[in-house]
Amino acid sequence: MTEALHSTAKNTDVAVAATGLGKHFTVDQRQIAALEGITLSIRTGVVSALIGPDGAGKTTLLRLIAGLLAPDYGTISVFGLDPVTRPDAVHGITGYMPQRFGLYEDLTVQENLDLYADLHGVPSRLRPEQFLELLDMTKLSAFQGRLAGKLSGGMKQKLGLACTLVAQPRLLLLDEPTVGVDPVSRRELWLIIERMVASGTTVLMSTAYLDEAERCHEIFMLHAGQLLRQGAPGADYSILAGRCFEIHGAESFTRRLQSRLAERPNIVDAVIQGDAVRVVTAQPDPPKLDDLAAEFPSLSVTPVPPRFEDGFIALLKPLVEQVNLGSALSPSTEAVDREDTVIEVREVERWFGDFQAVKRISFDVKRGEVFGLLGANGAGKTTTFRMLCGLLPPSHGQLRVAGVDLRSAASKARRRIGYMSQKFSLYGALSVRQNLEFFASAYRLDRGKRRVRLDWALEEFQLTPYADSSSGDLPLGHKQRLALACALLHEPEILFLDEPTSGVDPLMRRAFWSAINALAEQGVTVLVTTHFMEEAEYCDRLVIMAAGSLLAAGRPQEIRAQASRTDRPNPTLEDAFIELLQQSEQTPL
Question: Using CA atoms, how far apart are residues 185 and 206, in angstroms rounded to an integer?
Answer without folding.
Answer: 17
